[in-house]
Specification:
The chain has 252 residues and is of the alpha/beta class. The protein has helices at residues 14-24, 64-70, 94-104, 132-150, 187-191, 214-218, 228-242, and strands at residues 4-8, 31-34, 43-44, 50-56, 73-74, 78-86, 107-116, 176-177, 224-225, 249-251.
Amino acid sequence: MRKVYNIYFSPTGTSEKAAKQIVKAFGCEPVTIDLCEEIHEEIHMEADSVCVFSVPCYGGRIPKAAAERLAHIHGENTPAVTAVTFGNRAYEDALLELADLVKMQGFRVIAGGAMVTEHNIMHVFGQGRPDNSDNEEILKFSQEILKKLNQNDFSMPHLPGNRPYKEWHGSNMAILVDEECCMGCGICALKCPVNAISPDGLQRNEALCINCMRCISICPQNVRRLPEALVNGLIERLRPACESRKNNEFYL
C-alpha cells in the first residue's frame, strides 16, 4: 500500500484514540486528516492506499458536520475501514450510515468496527474506555484487516443498521460559562468544530452548536460546564441502557 490515511472527527479525542489504535497495526506513519477542521478543497485518495474513517455516534447517527466534510474526500475504489465510537449505550445506524457515505465517495469498505468509549456527557458510563482489554481487541481487529488486505480480499462485510436511518432527535443543551473566571483566551472558539462560539468565548450560537462537548473538554480554566441537574437527570434516565459494560463489535 502506498499510504495509510487516518481520517477522524473527534471533538473530545475519543474517536481519535480509537482510530490511532486501528492504524497502529499497519506499521507506518499515517497521514492524518482532522475533520474537526473545515475542508476547503476536494481531497482525492489513491487506489493503492488505505483509509480509516472514525467518527463518534450521536443519538444513533453520525454527526452532520462530519458527514458534510467527508463529502469532500474522494476515493478511487480505495479500501476503507469505517469505525464509530459510542458511549456505552448503542450505535444503532451510525456504522451503516458511515459506510454508506464512504461508499458514495468512491471507497470500498472492507471492515467496520463499533468501539466503546467514555460517554462525552455522562462520564460515569464507559469511564476509562477504551481500556487495555479494548485496545487488545482493536489491535487484533487491525491485524485481521491487514491480513485481509494482504490476501487482496476487498469484500464488504454485512454491517448492522437500518435504512432509512433513525430520525435524529438532537437537543440543544445549555453550556454554562463562569464569566468571572473565564480568561477570554478564545481556545474554545478557535477549536469549535462548527464555529459556534464568539471569539471571547462568552456567547454561543445555539443554532450551530452540536453539543460535541469539545469546548468543555479543552477549556484550560475549566470554566465551561453543563448544568449539574441536567446531567444527573440524564444519568438516571439512561442508566438502564448504559450501566452494564457493552462490547466492541467488529465486522470483517
